[in-house]
Design brief:
By secondary structure, the protein is of the alpha/beta class. The protein has two domains: about 160 residues, Aspartate Aminotransferase, domain 1, CATH 3.90.1150.10; about 240 residues, Aspartate Aminotransferase, domain 2 (3-Layer(aba) Sandwich), CATH 3.40.640.10. The chain is about 40% helix and about 15% strand. It has a seven-stranded mixed sheet with strand order 4-10-9-8-7-5-6, sandwiched between helices. The two termini are about 30 Å apart.
C-alpha cells in the first residue's frame, strides 16, 4: 500500500475541524463526499471575515462595497482557473448546480423550435436530465436518451453516436457518475456533438473533487459544479463559453449590465459563499507546494497528485468490499476509468439501516438511496428499488484507517444462515 494518500491526508486533516467530531469515542470517518465534503478552517474564516468586516451589496462607491467587488472578482478568477476558462467573465455563480442548470436550460429553450433534439444520458444525476426534459413540455423539444451498456454503469457510446443528427441542439452529460464513479468519455462525446453543430453541457459536480477540470480539453460549451462538493460552501458554479454567453438571451432585469457573466446572474448573489468558494479553490492550490506558480498550475498539480493517491486507496476499498460474502457491488467494468465512489448493498439489510448502523455504531458516514441518479440505479440495481444503495466516496482527508474501519464494520453485519457461504 502506497503511503502517498496517507501523507496528503495527514497533511490536510488538521485543517478540517469536522474531523475532530467523535461518536462513542470514535472519530468520524466521512465517506459522504459525493453528497457534500467537509470544509477547512480557512474557508470558514473567509466566510466569517467577509460577513463581519466587508459585508455590503456590490457596485457602489463606499469602502465595503468596493471591497465586495474586489472579493467577488478574486473568487470569480479563482473559479475560472479551476475549470481553465479563458476569462473570469465566463464564470457564473448561483444557488447550486441544479438551479443554475434549470436557469441555463430555460435560456437555451428560448432558442429552440418544435422538433429540435436534446440528448441526455441514463447515467446522469437528474439535475442534468430533468431541466432538459422540461424543454420538451415548454418548447416542443424531443428528448433522446443515451442508454447504458448492457445495463452496466457505463454509457453505450455507439448508441450515443446513433442519436446525433441534424436536429440535435444540445448534449447534456456528466463527467463522471455521482452514484457509481464511472468516468464518461466526454471529450469524444463533445467532439461528436460539435460535428453536428450541437452544444455540450457538462455536469462536473462529482468529478470536480477528484480531477483537474479543463473545459477546453473536454470541449465543454457549458459546465457546472457545486462548491460544497469541493470543500467549499453551498454555492453553485457554472462556466459558459464567452461567445455563447453573449448570444444567449438570459432572463434578467431590464437595467442589468449587458456584458459578461452579469448577463446570466440574477439579483444579489451569495457573497459570503462565493468568497468561501474562492478560499476553497486557493486551499487546494496551496497543497501543491509550488507557491510561486500560477494558480492554474498549482491546482493541476494538486489534483493530479490527489488522483494518483485516491486510486491506490480506492483500490483497497473496492477490493476489500468485493471480498465480503455479504456485499454486492454495483460498478462499471473493472477496466473502466472511474472516480473513487462505490455503490453497494449488504445482503438482507436495507441501505438506510446499513447507513444508520455504520453511523451510530462505528462513526462511519455513508450515503444511501438513489442519489438523484434514479434512472441509473433502477436499471443497474433494480432489486434495490425499495431501499436504494449504500454509497461510499473518498475525500482528500480519507485514510487507509478509515477504509479499514468501513470494511470491518460492513463485514461484521451478520448474514442470514441461508446466505452464508460454505466453509
Amino acid at each position: 500500500m502506497s503511503t502517498l494518500h496517507d501523507t496528503l491526508a495527514t497533511h490536510v486533516r488538521p485543517a478540517f475541524p469536522a474531523l475532530t467530531r467523535a461518536i462513542a469515542r470514535q472519530p468520524v470517518a466521512y465517506f459522504d463526499g459525493p453528497g457534500g465534503t467537509q470544509v477547512p478552517q480557512r474557508v470558514a474564516d473567509a466566510v466569517s471575515d467577509y460577513l463581519l468586516n466587508h459585508n455590503a451589496n456590490a457596485g457602489w462607491a463606499y469602502r465595503t462595497s468596493v471591497e465586495t467587488d474586489i472579493a467577488l472578482g478574486q473568487a470569480r478568477a479563482a473559479a475560472a482557473a479551476f475549470v481553465n476558462a479563458v476569462s473570469p467573465d465566463e464564470i457564473l455563480f448561483g444557488a447550486n448546480m441544479t438551479t443554475l442548470t434549470f436557469h441555463i436550460a430555460r435560456t437555451i429553450g428560448r432558442t429552440l423550435t418544435p422538433g429540435d433534439e436534446i440528448v441526455v444520458t441514463d447515467l446522469d444525476h437528474h439535475a442534468n436530465i430533468d431541466p432538459w426534459v422540461a424543454l420538451a413540455r415548454d418548447y416542443g423539444a424531443v428528448i433522446r436518451h443515451v442508454p447504458l451498456l448492457q445495463n452496466s454503469a457505463q454509457l453505450d457510446f455507439d448508441g450515443y453516436e446513433r442519436l446525433l443528427g441534424p436536429r440535435t441542439r444540445l448534449v447534456a452529460v456528466g463527467l463522471s457518475s455521482n452514484a457509481f464513479g464511472t468516468i464518461n468519455p466526454v471529450g469524444r462525446m463533445a467532439a461528436a456533438a460539435h460535428r453536428v453543430g450541437a452544444l455540450v453541457f457538462v455536469d462536473a459536480v462529482h468529478a470536480a473533487a477528484h480531477a483537474a477540470l479543463d473545459v477546453a480539453a473536454i470541449g465543454a460549451d457549458m459546465l457546472a459544479f457545486s462548491a460544497y462538493k469541493v470543500y467549499g460552501p453551498h454555492v453553485g458554479v457554472a462556466y459558459c463559453r464567452a461567445a455563447l454567453l453573449e448570444r444567449l438571451d438570459f432572463p434578467r432585469l431590464a437595467p442589468q449590465l449587458p456584458k459578461g457573466s452579469k448577463r446570466a446572474e440574477s439579483g444579489t448573489l451569495n457573497h459570503e459563499g462565493i468568497v468561501g468558494t474562492g478560499a476553497a479553490i486557493n486551499f487546494l492550490a496551496g497543497l501543491s507546494g509550488s507557491g510561486d506558480a500560477p494558480l492554474r498550475d498549482r491546482l493541476v498539480a494538486t489534483m493530479n497528485r490527489l488522483a494518483v493517491e485516491e486510486e491506490t486507496l480506492f483500490r483497497a476499498l473496492v477490493d476489500r468490499l468485493r471480498a465480503l460474502p455479504n456485499v454486492t457491488l454495483y460498478e462499471p467494468p473493472r477496466d473502466a476509468p472511474r472516480h473513487p465512489t462505490v455503490a453497494f448493498t449488504v445482503r438482507d439489510r436495507a441501505a438506510h439501516d446499513v447507513a444508520r448502523q455504520l453511523s451510530d455504531d462505528h462513526a462511519v458516514f455513508v450515503s444511501h438511496g438513489d442519489f438523484y441518479a434514479s434512472t441509473a440505479v433502477a436499471k443497474i440495481a433494480p432489486q434495490s428499488a425499495d431501499g436504494g444503495l449504500v454509497r461510499a466516496g473518498l475525500g482528500i482527508y480519507s485514510t487507509l484507517a478509515d477504509v479499514e474501519r468501513l470494511v470491518a464494520a460492513v463485514a461484521a453485519m451478520p448474514v442470514s444462515r441461508k446466505h452464508q457461504r460454505p466453509v
